[in-house]
Description:
Blueprint: E1 27-28, E2 37-43, H1 47-59, E3 65-69, E4 96-100, E5 113-117, H2 136-144, H3 161-170, E6 173-175, H4 179-185, E7 201-203, H5 212-221, E8 237-240, H6 255-261, E9 270-274, E10 276-282, E11 294-299, E12 306-316, H7 319-329, E13 332-333, H8 335-340, E14 347-348, E15 363-367, H9 383-393, E16 409-414, H10 422-433, H11 451-469, E17 474-479, E18 485-487, E19 489-490, E20 498-500, E21 511-513, H12 520-534, H13 540-544, E22 548-551, H14 559-569, E23 604-606, H15 621-641
Binding site for substrate: 574
Domain Glucose-methanol-choline oxidoreductase C-terminal: 493-628
Cofactor: FAD
Amino acid sequence: xxxxxxxxxxxxxxxxxxxxxxNTGNVKRQASELLDxxxxxxxxxxxxxxxxxxxxxxxxPDRNVxxxxxxxxxxxxxxxxxxxxSWGTAGGLASGWLLNSTPSPELNNNTxxxxxxxxxxxxxxxxxxxxxxxxRFDYDSWDRLQGxxxxxxEKDTDWSWDGVYPFFKKSVxxxxxPKAVAxxxxxxxxxxxxxxxxxxxxxxxxxxxxxxxxxRQSWQEMGIxxxxxxxxxxxxxxxxxxxxxxxxxxxxxYAGIGHYSEVVGKRPxxxxxxxxxxxxxxxxxGNAKEGQPVVEVRPVAGGPSFTISAKKxxxxxxxxxxxxxILQRSGIGPPAFLQSANIPLVLDLPGVGSNLxxxxxxxVQWNCKSLPFYPLPSEMLNETFAAEAAxxxxxxxxxxxxxxxxxxxxxxxxxxxxxxxxxxxxxxxxRLANATHPxxxxxxxxxxxxxTLIAGYRAQLLALADLLANPRSPSLExxxxxxxxxxxxxxxxxxxxxxxxxxxxxxxxxVLDYRSASNPIDxxxxxxxxxxxxxxxxxxxxxALGAVEVQPGETVQTDEELEAFVRRSTVQSYMHPCCTAAMxxxxxxxxxxxxxxxxxxxxxxxxxxxxxxxxxxxxxxxTAYAVGEKAADIIINQWSKRKDG
Length: 645
């Protein structure tokens, strides 16, 4: 029985005892507890924001850092922790926003459902704990999209793989599994790809469900190569992926613990202000380029707003949805939209809230005549088995089913390996990049009056065409841990959406218009990916199990039938939104430069997943830590050199 078939129910066992005690030192809840001003103010205590705060307070012990966080200090349980027994559900997660987009006409007016962390630690406290990195070619494309920087590139603003890889290594401590576990599951890894100096942990679990090898075996029969390690930039093939959990307790490892609780006791200069929201950034002298920023703050529970000044700079780390909302409330963004919202224009940056991207795709599903495996998730419905699983989890080190999150195995397959007609798709992308009429680009209407956004999107199309043509750069991802389905995930979408301030309630989450599959080439990619994944049914492994395809279904064969399936079945968000304050030149619709400073604004930076120019072929947690580490390095280097620093 797959996880989608397991009943959603709870078993009454004691709450996990492996929870890490949360150090709440220096947590502030009232304005009266704050200093009059801070050297650095960070808006958002999420994955990247807390990484920056940790590094700044360490590097500058005589400078004060304030993190302003909408949520509260909470312990964040893992995706699958006691007492939850329905594996694959979002059991007792920490607080988060559950957001719906506007309907997507090209996908039968279905909406995207996406979660964002509303807690100290941000989305690292609620994600699926899948801790992978993208391909080297993903990050090389980021650097390419910064434009020609011949003679001006500095090492710390190099966003190619070579420029980012050291920060991936720095950002996590990986612990290899015991030899017996490695031998049992044929785990492979390369410890040289990790730095092992940071209390953000990742490890390979000591437990897998009994049918875990079904997909791995069938994928190998399809000719997919087995990779020894996929964290070194060469991410193509069948990979083992670490889980972001502590190697002993198997508790979730996230930014709220590793970059706050475990370090704040030594840092009197590290202040965390919870249950408050950054309303906007204000330049009192009216000059955003030269002025000193002031942060306007409001209590989440209501009450009067107040301001805090930043002596050095303000860092926006409120996330893909929160950061553009802050900028728009500050009068920084698309002029036409700000005018419609009656917000005075401070800085004309049409890229703010544009360029929204996320991973999407349908799922291929099957039924099997027999599943001769043990254990399967259905065993958790047995009270004795579930109780034993809870006991095993509380051992030292933790053991059993509760040590496995959602998955730790997946394939990443390049488009040339997926379809023989890949060159037709690549050619169509390149023709689109050179199209003379902006309307043919299938972009949001707000792009039509903004030539810089059009120019930036054309540059993205050319970069994406090169990515998809590369036989070592993945186009498709599919994960598996157990069950009777596999997602055909599109890693590099061409469609672009928007994030706009909610005009009727501007301090609530903004309006998300995903516009999924608005670019018809995305449908072509979805169809190619789905056809490829259906080949699993024809492998010897699946035939031996008597597997029968139920979605799309064996009767679905024509292009028209398969397209109808994709339109009604596509999951529009795999919870990896990005790119709404893109790191690109201003003349190409960018919001920040390679030093992450907001174009045209003084002492204002963005550090979160909104700065990505294009979506990498990875779940975003590991990338969020690496971006935070690299940003902290840039900030520390720049302020260490300044005479007024």
